[in-house]
Each structure stands twice: as C-alpha cells, then as structure tokens.
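call fold(seq) -> tokens
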Amino acid sequence: MTQSLNDPIALAQSLIQCPSITPTDAGALDVMQAALEQLGFDCRRLPFEDVDNLYARLGTASPCFLFAGHTDVVPPGEDAAWTQPPFAAEAIDGVLWGRGAADMKGALAAMVAAVSRHLDRHDPAKGSIAFLITGDEEGFAINGTKRVLVALDEAGERFDHCLVGEPTNPTVLGDMIKSGRRGSINCKLTVRGRQGHVAYPERAENPIPVLLTLLDRLNARVLDEGHPPFPPSNLEVTSIDVGNPTTNVIPGNATAQFNIRFNIKHTGDELTRWIEDEVALSDLHFDGHIDTDFHVTGEAFLTPAGDFTTLLQDAVEAETGRRPALNTGGGTSDARFIHNYCPVAEFGLVGATMHQVDERVPVSDIEHLTNIYTTILARYFEARP
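ret:
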C-alpha cells in the first residue's frame, strides 16, 4: 500500500535522513522521484559529471507551473555540536531538526504534499505541473539547474512560471518573497613583480603598492545609488595575500580577491571590462604584470510586480495574515538561471538556522507552507496569470 503524500512531515524526514552533502545525492533524489511517480509524474534523471538531477512533469497542457529546488545540503560540521544528530530528522516538541530542514528539504516536502492535495481537489487537465530538482545548488552550480535547463529547452520543454522553495523569510513565515536577485562576480588579482632585498629596492619590483593602489581605485568607485527595488551595488575585498614571512625581502607576487554584488544597472561583462581597464592603467608604469581571473556566478534579474507576484502575496497572506514584501536582497540562488526561461520568484521557510549547527524549523511552518503552495496551485490554474 502506498503512503499518502498529503502530509509533508514524513517526506521531509525521509529527505533529511539522506546525507546529501553537495554534490553527493545519498538517495535524496530517489525519495523525490518515488513520491512524484506515486502522484503520476513522468520522471527523468539528468546527470551531468558528478551531479545528479531530477526533472518531473505531470501533464502536457499549458500553462506549466514549475517548482524548483535542491536536495543537496552544506556539511553539518561536528555531529557532537548538534542537539540532535544532523541526519536523524527528529521531530521533537513540534520542531523538525536536521541539516536541510530549512534549506530546503522541508520546502520540497511541502511542494509534493501541496501537489497531492491539489490533485485530490482539482482537475489536473487545466495545465501542467513540473519539478526541477538539482543536486549542486550548494556547490558550484555548474552541473545542476543551469545545464538541466539547457537540455530541457533543447528538448522543447517550456514553462510559464516558476516558484523556487528557498528559505526567503528572515524571522517569521510570511515575511518575504524574493522577486529578484543581485548578480555576483568574483575576481582574483595577481600582481607579479620581482623579488629582491629591501635594502636594494632598485633591483626589485614590489607588487604590493601596485596592488593596494589598484584596490583603492576599484573600491573608491561608487557603482550606483541603488535601483529600486535593489540596494546599491557593492564591492567587498575578501582577501589580500603575500605569503612573505620575512622582513627583509620584497615579495615577488601579491594577490587579492574581491566580490561585487550588483543590481540590474550593471552586467557581469560591463563590470569585467571596467576592472580590466583599471588593471591596464596599473600596468602602464609597472615593470611587472597583473593577471586577472573572473567568474560571473550570475546576472542580476527582476520579476516585476504584477499578476504573478500578487497571486503569491495573496496566497501567503491568506494563510499567515501577513503580506510578504517583495525583496531582492541576500545571496544568489538557482533562480538566476531560471529567469532566462520564465518569470520566477522564491518563497520558502524561515532561514534563521540554515547552514548553522542545529538547523531546524517548526513542524507547523511546514504545514503552513504546504497550505500556501496548495492555494498557489489552485489560484494559478484558475487565474492563469
């Protein structure tokens, strides 16, 4: 006899019990696939390199509503530091403990339970429901959602709207919907000079002043004053390294790393060109060389306020009594890839304990989230935004 999927807690526990530390799957996608196949979804696995991914779809009609998320989790740290074992998935006094409870196995279980309840109450022929579940969102995010979307697009799969189950709420369920995200670019600068004795600077080429001057110029630029609803873009130096343990040697090399989080006033290519221009200026009067290494991990995007975001806000408010704000702050997510294919927003559990020791969520929050997702599905296929 198959188990009812209307209750999300048992499924959340099964998922948490899989130690799916990115990019290891540890059976988590099998748990999701079994549940979705029980509901009638056609499932296919899309592995790329060392990352496994799952795509599932119920129906072929339009519109298609896509749920997206990830089963991989960050390492738990020392097990002994946890109040409850990180992969035991204990539910104690109304709280579900475990790595991934908030980010984001609790939300995945709520999505499945919401679909189960929706199918009990509504005709599924009005449209399609799909799931895109990756195993490397917490890792390099190269062989997961990004590559799966390319493969699905080439296969003719189309989506009308997407909801990602990231833990978007800072303190209480109903606080916030992410309707966009800032872009992110990482840069490593390596200034290569010439090593020498500090008493004979004319025989050396010190890379440190060149690096510091370059960083000062980069840091001095005000990228923008913000672009509502985005905050101002910011450049943060994260590391400066010389690796010189001595006091009488001018080092040969100096490196620095920084990250820029940017809003939709910029693109990764534009910022890369600006940095390269500044590097070229520094190279003009320097008898050495400056190497650059760039990695744009995602472009800024925004799903404008409209029928889709209003539908989401209405469903959250109906369940929680709080109308969530539309927000674009925080880090990146796989929504940065999905927005190229359809409008996307994010709403999940409270993220106060995500990535921490003793990650946990109230069982009642998972139930409320299930109700919210159920309402979203009903209203979506009724309204077709």
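The mean pLDDT is 95.
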